[in-house]
Write a structure and sequence with these properties.
Blueprint lengths: L1 H31 L4 E3 L10 E13 L5 E8 L8 E10 L13 E3 L5 E4 L10 E6 L5 E9 L10 H4 L1 E9 L12 H6 L4 H16 L1 E11 L3 E7 L8 E6 L2 E8 L5 E6 L3 E9 L8 E8 L4 E8 L3 E9 L3
Parallel strand pairs: 10-18
Antiparallel strand pairs: 1-2, 2-8, 3-7, 3-9, 4-6, 4-8, 5-7, 11-14, 11-16, 12-13, 12-15, 15-18, 16-17
């Protein structure tokens, strides 16, 4: 009886929400997007490891001198016993039959690790609406919404037929005007740091500033200032590349994670210190995951961080000298 009641409620919600979502999709096309779209009957072929769910054609192409937002609702069937979770990715492309696989640095999710996740009763999905920011490097006429699925695992649902994507919109974001700054040519010329190094450091800081910082809510107290940090991939080796920040300084730059631990020396400042994982790529399986081992003469502990190209996760070390 209880299961029948849950099923009745679920169907009722779909009946009520369906017209609303349909109307919202139409309204988005007319009011919010600024770009008219056409949903294609056939989806594009997604890169290996992904399943294309929905492809739309843009009547006005995305241009490399602008920034855009793509939003949509995505739903899957309610599982009875075993839940499922699939990371979501968006692929811009120039042709209706070809998806560019190397676009991860062009597309950034506005939420942390977006995924379609459904759990059996009494738990249900917590979020069905997602948005992505797109920074084109060329003209793009098509957008494909895809799910990451491991080839070695049999999904509990039919991804192409059981997943619903609706309420799709694409719209340009307002340009951010750069503030005028004082001419610092003279001070830079007098600096002991060569000009190319200054520019490179500024670019790295700007790129890092664009990513959202996510607190892992992990905090550890240490009694020694000097310690060793070991980095390794504790899961399947999939060519993850990372940069590790200690506070605001780069501790390890563009390191490819291996099964074996790679150790680096670090010096803490008194009080609070942060260790941040900055993903240089997503490896073969997103997100980028790194195990970080902290060792000194009297302590040893490990933390695992996950980051992608839009967000960097960190944990805290508290140095309390005796």
């Amino acid at each position: 009886m209880k299961n029948r009641y849950i099923t009745y409620v679920f169907i009722t919600v779909l009946i009520i929400a369906g017209p609303v979502l349909y109307a919202q999709q139409n309204n988005n096309h007319k009011r919010d997007s600024g770009i008219q779209i056409s949903v294609l009957d056939l989806t594009e072929t997604a890169p290996e490891g992904y399943v294309a769910i929905k492809t739309v054609k843009l009547n006005t192409p995305l241009r490399p001198d602008s920034i855009y937002e793509l939003g949509f609702w995505i739903f899957g069937p309610q599982p009875k016993v075993k839940g499922y979770s699939f990371p979501i990715q968006v692929f811009p492309s120039n042709r209706s039959d070809l998806v560019e696989p190397n676009i991860f640095d062009l597309v950034s999710p506005t939420t942390d690790f977006p995924k379609l996740e459904m759990k059996p009763p009494p738990s249900y999905t917590s979020k069905g609406h997602f948005t992505f920011v797109i920074r084109p490097d060329t003209l793009y006429h098509y957008m494909t919404i895809a799910l990451r699925a491991k080839n070695s695992e049999l999904p509990p649902i039919q991804l192409k037929s059981d997943i619903t994507v609706t309420g799709i919109f694409v719209r340009p974001l307002p340009e951010i005007k750069e503030e005028e700054t004082e001419d610092t040519t003279e001070s830079i010329a007098e600096s002991t740091v060569p000009l190319p190094a200054v520019r490179a450091e500024s670019a790295e800081r700007a790129e890092r500033a664009e990513r959202k910082l996510i607190n892992s809510n992990k905090s550890y107290s240490v009694a020694e200032r000097e310690l060793s940090i070991g980095l390794f991939d504790h899961r399947n080796i999939d060519n993850d590349r990372v940069t590790i920040y200690l506070n605001d300084d780069i501790l390890v730059k563009d390191l490819t994670l291996k099964k074996q631990k790679q150790f680096f020396k670090a010096t803490l400042r008194p009080g609070k210190n942060t260790i941040t994982l900055h993903a240089e790529n997503l490896g073969e399986v997103a997100p980028n995951t790194a195990a970080i081992l902290i060792k000194n003469q009297s302590q040893e502990f490990m933390a695992v961080l996950e980051s992608d190209l839009g967000a960097s996760q960190f944990f805290t070390l508290i140095y309390n000298p005796d």
